[in-house]
Structure formats: structure tokens, C-alpha cells
Amino acid sequence: MSTNNSHGGKPPFSYPVNVGRVSVNPVTVNLEADERELEGLAKLWQVLAVRSLKAELQINRWKKDGLRVKGRVRAQITQACVVTLDPVDSTIDEPFEQIFVPEGSKLARMVTGETAEMVVDPDGPDLPEQFAGDTIDVGDVVAEFAALAIEPYPRKPGIEFTDHLEGDGAAENARPNPFAVLKDWKKD
Questions:
Q1: 54 has which bridge partners?
Q2: pTM, whole model, 2 decimals?
């Protein structure tokens, strides 16, 4: 995850935090997207609509130069059903935690074993993200964690995929069955 907006320009939901002004004691920050930000997020996430996006964060220092952002993101979105293309309403309610360290920090390096193999614990904490400069856009972080929670294949309740073979059925019926001649064959 990166706090830089890869689409160029300012991200649709932004709340920059100056790392130097954050203390060791956690500070609670409540964020809520306005109409313009909701429209930008809907376009970014490629969904029909984002009706709300709220986050409650705890921001505090981590180690000497790092920053910990911990919280919960809640959102109401409308997506297109992958079967019928009808609107489907979804709710996102996800906890998250992310640690940030300055570029080049020793704390961001991967621990390797004696054989220089990377040791990754899938159930362990994520590696810290690196940031450049003196600010981190926690609004962009909230938007990224919300995007990760979006259902990739939304379906209306009760709608299922059915087996479907391309082509019309008449073409199959017109071709003779090669085994049809054997039905009248009698064994002596």
C-alpha cells in the first residue's frame, strides 16, 4: 500500500497528517467524506455510488520516527450485480492498522534467515509502509482499506449463475449423431 496517489493529483479523500506533530499518546480523529469526495471515490473504485464513508482513527507515534494508524472504516456503497447488472447495496465495516516509517528506515527492512531467505508470517503483522517527506495522507489510507473490503463479484440476493453454452441449440440438433446408426444394429 502506498500513500501516494497513483492516478495523479490529489486523491479523492484526503486528510494529511504532519508526522512531526503527532505525540506518543494516541489522538482520535473522526473522518467523514463529503459529497464531492464520495463522487470521486465512486469513480476511483468503479462502483455505481458511494453513499457514505466514515472512519474513526487512533494516530500515535510508533518507535522513534514512525506512525501508527489504527481504526475502523465504515462505508455504504452501491455496485452493479455481476449477473443482472441491477444495483446492489453493500456495507463495509472493517478494522485496520497500518504502521509507517520514513524512507530508508531500518524498521522497514525484511528480516531474513541465515540462508538469506525471506521469512514471512502470513498471520503476523504487515511490514511497515515507508513514507517520504513529513506528512502521511491518512484519508488516502482509509480509502485504500475500504477499497480492499469491496465485494469483487456482488450479486443480488437469490441470483445465481446458470450454466450456459454459447450458440443456438438448433445447430446441435441439425448435426447427425454418429452413433445413431448403431441403435438398430443387432448382435447375432
A1: 32, 74
A2: 0.73
Question: Half-sphere exposure (CA, 13 Å, Cβ side) for 93?
Answer: 1
CA distances from 100 to 12, 14, 39, 75, 139 (A): 21, 17, 28, 24, 14
pLDDT of residue 128: 84
> SS3 sequence, the chain?
CCCCCCCCCCCCCCCEEEHHHCCCCCEEEEEECCHHHHHHHHHHHCCCEEEEEEEEEEEEEECCCEEEEEEEEEEEEEEECCCCCCEEEEEEEEEEEEEEEECCCHHHCCCECCCCCECCCCCCCCCCEEECCCEEEHHHHHHHHHHHCCCCCCCCCCCCCCCCCCCCHHHHHHCCCCCHHHCCCCCC
125 CB burial (10 A radius; 0-12, 13-18, 19+): exposed
The segments of the chain whose pLDDT lies below 50 read 1-7, 112
Confidence at residue 70, expressed as pLDDT on a 0 to 100 scale: 95
Supply the pLDDT for residue 5: 45
